[in-house]
């Protein structure tokens, strides 16, 4: 009788899997989906087996569909969801599938939490990769656009190299602070009379391994090498914005994207459309003082592994990397050693102690509700 009462009270059993799936697909906020997974074991199993977390990620941010696989990097060997059991493994295929499904649930539930985080947006640019052309290189290099000022050593911060014809598109390409960023808006301050008429933005990843990608530096690169770095054949663009009109004035202008965009791979290209003619040499130029890519970084817990010449992207989840800086965690993650895991544990312990001290001084700190559901922070 008790068993019958329990079955009769299970919503999933009463309405059936098809209607249940239709209802679960209406959830448009991660908190609703993750709360449902906590109702009872059968509900969690239903969420896990139907990949609802991954599907919601892709619905909120279509760029997430580019991932070919997702891997949880832990103390043991990395577990890839939907992997096949080894012939020598004592586990059945059902056990492996269940563990893989649970891993995928953890990966994408943490990605969901990061996607809807209320952390403050900041300028995400880490490095300059290169510009399509530069006048007076390296004095007017793209690197000057990282500084919020009109001139560097009495020169325009950045100036294009000058074109013989109108209609040429000049570009500025930047590396963001992490592999995965949510970008809300891009800000550009053009310089004096050499304003672009329109701007457009592209986001994506480099096909080359990270260690082979180089950046602009005044000392060791010339303009020809700069052109090789930004060649379009080296990149895969997963998002292209519409064109935005530019006010013909020297002010920091904000271009808000139609929706937040998931930049997977950490590369943003700013396309400057419509150059201006200079009377002294009858050539066409564009000048830019400053540029910002405003959003939030999702590293170091979530990273991207790129292989097969950029055609295969793997989402990596590093639960032990909370509190670590992106570049440090990336270098250590490649080894996946006990030393890396111990370093991550110590870092998180120190962070907890600092939080406890703040609580004593400032009072209790509000914790995002999803932290309690998933556990930990991104």
Q: Count the strands?
A: 18
Largest sheet: 6 strands, antiparallel
Q: Count of helical segments? A: 11
Tell me, rounded to a whole number, the average pLDDT. Answer: 78
Structural class: alpha+beta
The CATH topology of the domain at 122-297: Jelly Rolls
CATH superfamily of the domain at 122-297: Galactose-binding domain-like
Shape: elongated
Extract low-pLDDT stretches.
1-7, 326-369, 374-378
If you had to describe this structure to a student in words, what would you say it looks like?
This protein has a domain at 122-297: Galactose-binding domain-like (Jelly Rolls). 31% of the residues lie in helices and 28% in strands. The chain contains eleven helices and 18 strands. Strands 3, 7, 9, 10, 11 and 13 form a six-stranded antiparallel β-sheet that branches. Strands 2, 6, 8, 12 and 16 form a five-stranded antiparallel β-sheet that branches. A three-stranded mixed β-sheet has the order 1-18-17. It is elongated, with a radius of gyration of 24 Å. The model is unreliable at 1-7, 326-369 and 374-378 (pLDDT under 50).
């Amino acid at each position: 009788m008790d068993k019958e009462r329990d079955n009769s009270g299970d919503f999933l059993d009463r309405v059936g899997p098809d209607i249940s799936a239709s209802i679960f697909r209406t959830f448009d906020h991660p908190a609703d989906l993750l709360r449902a997974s906590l109702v009872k074991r059968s509900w969690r199993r239903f969420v896990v087996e139907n990949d609802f977390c991954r599907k919601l990620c892709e619905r909120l941010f279509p760029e997430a569909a580019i991932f070919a696989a997702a891997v949880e990097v832990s103390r043991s060997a990395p577990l890839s969801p939907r992997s096949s059991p080894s012939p020598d493994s004592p586990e059945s295929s059902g056990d492996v599938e269940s563990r893989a499904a649970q891993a995928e649930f953890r990966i994408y539930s943490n990605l969901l939490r990061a996607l809807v985080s209320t952390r403050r947006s900041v300028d995400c640019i880490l490095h300059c990769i290169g510009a399509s052309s530069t006048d007076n290189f390296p004095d007017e290099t793209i690197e000057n656009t990282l500084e919020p000022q009109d001139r560097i050593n009495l020169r325009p911060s950045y100036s294009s190299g000058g074109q013989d014809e109108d209609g040429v598109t000049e570009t500025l390409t930047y590396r963001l602070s992490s592999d995965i960023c949510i970008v809300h808006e891009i800000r550009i301050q053009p310089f004096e009379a050499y304003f672009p008429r329109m701007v457009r933005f592209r986001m994506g990843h480099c096909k080359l391994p990270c260690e082979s990608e180089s950046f602009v530096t005044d000392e060791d690169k010339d303009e020809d090498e700069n052109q090789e770095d930004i060649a379009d054949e080296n990149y895969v663009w997963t998002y292209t914005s519409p064109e935005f009109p530019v006010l013909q004035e020297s002010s920091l202008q904000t271009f808000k994207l139609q929706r937040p965009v998931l930049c997977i791979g950490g590369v943003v290209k700013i396309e400057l459309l419509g150059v201006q003619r200079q009377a002294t040499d009858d050539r066409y130029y564009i000048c830019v003082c400053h540029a910002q890519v405003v959003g939030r970084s999702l590293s170091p817990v979530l990273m991207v592994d790129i292989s097969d010449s950029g055609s295969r992207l793997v989402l990596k989840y590093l639960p032990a990397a909370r509190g670590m800086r992106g570049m440090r965690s990336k270098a250590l993650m490649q080894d996946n050693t006990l030393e890396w895991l111990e370093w991550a544990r110590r870092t998180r312990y120190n962070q907890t102690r600092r939080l406890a001290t703040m609580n004593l001084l400032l009072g209790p700190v509000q914790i995002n509700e999803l932290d309690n559901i998933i556990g930990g922070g991104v």
